Amino acid sequence: MDIFQKAKENANKSQMKNKHGAIIYDRDRVYATGYNKMILFLNLRKYGYERASLHAEADALIKLRYRTKHMTLLVLRLGKTKLRNSKPCKGCLAMCKEVGIEKVIFSNQFGNFEEMWIGD
């Protein structure tokens, strides 16, 4: 199974209207997965979250147990007929940088993928 399919499967686990899935990987090794969900009693305001939902990227980052060089985060949003915009917010990008994610790949409003390099 490829990384993109695995991200789609994770997005389908979401019970929210907008279904996002995230995978942290390096080459073919998956380090963590996540999807967006409602949360209770979790303080993520320091990263700019105002609502009681956990972004798929943050869910995967919280589950990350190992830090290695060259990790990539893939995040996508499922639409009815194609992928939708899933560009990470500033808070998720800050968390990515904090744990050493080098590259973020996300789905855009046209159903394609874009890459973003983050770092020092």
Share in helix: 10-25%
* CATH topology type: Cytidine Deaminase, domain 2
CATH class: Alpha Beta
Rg:
13 Å
Unreliable runs? none
Mean pLDDT: 89
- How many strands? 8
Q: What is the total number of structural domains? A: 1
Can you name the CATH architecture? Answer: 3-Layer(aba) Sandwich
Full CATH superfamily name: Cytidine Deaminase, domain 2
- Spatial separation of the terminal alpha carbons: 33 Å
Count of helical regions:
3
Shape: globular
Structural class: alpha+beta
Report the biggest beta sheet as strand number plus sense, adding barrel if it closes. Answer: 6 strands, mixed
Q: What is the strand content?
A: 25-35%
Task: Break the fold down into its secondary structure elements and pairings.
Blueprint: H1 3-13, E1 19-26, E2 29-35, E3 37-38, E4 53-54, H2 56-63, E5 72-78, E6 83-84, H3 90-99, E7 103-107, E8 113-117
Question: How would you characterize the overall build of this protein?
Answer:
The chain has 120 residues and is an alpha+beta fold. The chain has a single domain (3-117), classed as 3-Layer(aba) Sandwich (Cytidine Deaminase, domain 2), CATH 3.40.140.10. Helix content is 24%, strand content 32%. The chain is built from 3 helices and 8 strands. 32% of the residues are buried. The model has no long low-confidence stretch (mean pLDDT 89).
